[in-house]
Task: inverse folding
């Protein structure tokens, strides 16, 4: 028999019926946050070509929003949900960073001890490597050139090749600056940190983070390529709207971890003042957390970041990020991008909030802007801020009188991707023209009464900076307006002033003779993503009379060597390389950052007939062939060795890659190329063309 309801119950019910907002007031404060989350996710899918997005936001240990938009895969049979797993790209760097801080808490390493103390097998072709400390790996100031990508980006193929050969490849490199001199984004620093964790702990990196980070925090959906898990749970990726096999990035500590938005929020809790979650509260000491949040980027040269996105901490892209700096709130930000997956993670330690978004397609930048909108609305809902500051209104520049000394900044400038000519007219007009890449349009800036140069739509502000290292930089403050998403700002040194590179006539002639020559990758394994896009499968040498002494954006050293020597902090000086030409068995090869390419001039026409044989030679290199005019339009079938692959290209793209499409008959395109990639020397392909 049920108990009779007491009179007070009816009184309460009556009050709730008269004033329903009282009953649900606690939940209703997030109504606008939840509505905005759904709308922003739909904008990403509908307007920004994101295939699928998963997002979550937590505050004081509770999930405020968690949702998805888009598709899991092309067939749209399986639904995208909060348990679907995504690649998180460089958000992965927070795992070696967290692991290093854990080992520091345990007294097993010192952040300011040289890396070689813990990893004696670490050596480089530059004696300054001995000065690189563990801290410098985490704050991007090691001076290491950038990224050894070779045999890292695969399709559904976990391999340790990149990991196992990493120190051997690094030993061939010089440094681009004194260790600690400036912080510039460096993937290899975190791969090196991964190896330090393994050496100090005596465990594989995957084992270490599972035992010490993901299991304690209950991050059950966070895995690495070396883990045993159901890969069918990974959200699918797409190229040209065609579904690809599962992306596998085997640079685990630099970018290879898989996770979910809710799991990343749990990791974020470990960096909060009061996470509301016991496991997160005790993972790191307060001392360790505080260390990671310090403004490491201020240890060296570079622009202030209170209106920027790259103020490095330890692991974090920024500990001083816009727009939170406008509210005097510290935000910890980490973004990640692979070729196909993207993500963003933001933590507000003092407010015990975290946001994460992971995406198939798009950009980490989209997740970051989505996160800033939702976090600000959550802060407003919880009365932590009184208003949301509106976006800046961008105005076209009005020309003002310019001090004549500004004309002295005219000259040649370079970054990691381009060499530019910068002209500064006495009337206050700057024209920036790309010398190394003729297809890039000029940029125009006008001097204004603010004392800065502003571009034509008001979205970029340019100033010249004479730094303490004696170098001159172009600083750009850029406002990004993402329609229906929001606005953010990035402040960076974009170019470094350089002098003309004077070389001898013999060296110039040697590189001029290579002008327009394309070199094709030969030392990636059969499952590599490098073969799936024509632009990623080759490197083109260009020279021009307006830029003597350069091959593309590389300074020529001699007839067979060209290198990059810019020293630009933050992002525009990342991933530098050295081009080295060699002649082996009468064929010309180009090497750069561990990747090896063969000249297209040394490719023979493919024999098109019955039972033609292609055998992988002793060097193990992939074998490239051109398709003759007589054979274009014919159909080719290939008998593949085990674990081998082949790809076919027309003049504009990869039209077929067996790792993606399966072994099928292929129609040979006009002016095309074919590559056969074996697993080992001696692998034999039998080819029939009709």
Result:
């Amino acid at each position: 028999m049920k108990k009779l309801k007491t009179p007070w119950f009816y009184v309460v019910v009556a009050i709730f019926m008269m004033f329903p907002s009282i009953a649900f007031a606690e939940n209703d404060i997030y109504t606008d946050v939840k509505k905005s989350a759904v709308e922003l996710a739909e904008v990403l899918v509908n307007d920004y070509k994101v295939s699928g997005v998963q997002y979550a936001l937590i505050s004081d240990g509770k999930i405020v929003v968690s949702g998805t938009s888009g598709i899991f895969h092309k067939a749209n049979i399986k639904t995208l949900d909060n348990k679907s797993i995504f690649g998180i790209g460089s958000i992965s760097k927070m795992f070696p960073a967290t692991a290093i801080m854990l080992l520091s808490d345990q007294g097993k390493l010192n952040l300011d001890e040289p890396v070689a103390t813990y990893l004696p097998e670490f050596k480089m072709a530059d004696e300054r490597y001995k000065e690189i400390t563990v801290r410098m790996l985490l704050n991007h100031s090691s001076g290491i050139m950038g990224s050894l990508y070779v045999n890292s980006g695969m399709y559904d193929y976990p391999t340790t090749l990149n990991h196992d050969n990493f120190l051997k490849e690094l030993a061939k490199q010089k440094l681009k600056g004194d260790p600690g001199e400036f912080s510039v984004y460096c993937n290899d620093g975190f791969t090196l940190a991964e190896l330090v964790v393994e050496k100090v702990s005596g465990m594989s990196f995957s084992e270490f983070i599972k035992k010490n980070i993901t299991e304690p925090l209950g991050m059950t959906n966070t895995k690495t390529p070396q883990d045993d898990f159901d890969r069918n749970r990974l959200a699918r990726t797409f190229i040209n709207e065609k579904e690809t096999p599962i992306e596998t990035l085997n640079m685990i500590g630099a970018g290879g971890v898989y996770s979910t938005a809710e799991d990343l929020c749990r990791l974020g809790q470990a960096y909060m003042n009061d996470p509301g979650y016991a496991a997160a509260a005790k993972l790191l000491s307060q001392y360790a957390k505080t260390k990671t949040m310090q403004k490491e980027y201020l240890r060296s040269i570079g622009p202030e970041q209170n209106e920027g996105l790259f103020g490095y901490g330890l692991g974090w892209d920024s500990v001083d990020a816009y727009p939170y700096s406008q509210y005097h709130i510290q935000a910890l930000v980490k973004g990640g991008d692979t070729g196909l997956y993207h993500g963003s993670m933001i933590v507000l330690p003092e407010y015990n909030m975290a946001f994460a978004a992971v995406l198939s397609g798009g950009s980490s930048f989209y997740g970051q802007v989505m996160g800033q909108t939702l976090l600000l609305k959550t802060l407003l809902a919880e009365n932590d801020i009184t208003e949301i500051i509106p976006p800046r209104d961008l105005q076209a520049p009005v020309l003002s009188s310019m001090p004549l000394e500004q004309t002295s900044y005219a000259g040649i400038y370079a970054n990691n991707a381009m060499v530019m000519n910068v002209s500064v007219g006495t009337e206050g007009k700057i024209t920036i023209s790309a010398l190394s890449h003729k297809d890039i349009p000029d940029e125009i800036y006008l001097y204004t009464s603010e004392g800065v140069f502003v571009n034509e739509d008001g979205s970029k502000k340019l100033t010249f900076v004479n730094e303490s290292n004696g170098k001159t930089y172009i600083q750009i403050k850029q406002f990004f307006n993402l329609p229906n998403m929001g606005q953010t700002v990035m402040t960076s040194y974009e170019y470094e002033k350089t002098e003309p590179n004077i070389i001898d006539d013999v060296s110039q002639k040697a590189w001029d003779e290579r002008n327009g020559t394309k070199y094709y990758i030969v030392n990636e394994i059969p499952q590599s993503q490098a073969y799936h896009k024509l632009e990623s499968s080759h490197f083109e040498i260009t020279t021009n009379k307006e830029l003597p002494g350069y091959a593309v954006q590389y300074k020529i050293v001699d007839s067979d060597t060209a290198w990059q020597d810019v020293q630009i902090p933050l992002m525009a000086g990342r991933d530098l390389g050295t081009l080295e030409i060699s002649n082996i068995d009468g064929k010309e090869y180009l090497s750069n950052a561990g990747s090896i390419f063969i000249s297209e001039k040394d490719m023979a026409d493919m024999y098109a007939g019955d039972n033609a044989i292609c055998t992988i030679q002793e060097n193990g290199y992939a074998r490239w062939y051109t398709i003759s005019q007589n054979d274009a339009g014919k159909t080719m079938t290939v008998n593949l060795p085990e674990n081998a692959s082949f790809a076919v290209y027309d003049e504009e793209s990869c039209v077929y890659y067996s790792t993606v499409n399966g072994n099928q008959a292929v129609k040979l395109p006009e002016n095309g190329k074919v590559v056969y990639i074996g697993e080992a020397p001696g692998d034999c392909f039998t080819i029939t063309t009709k």
Remarks:
- Residues 1-26 have pLDDT under 50 and may be disordered.
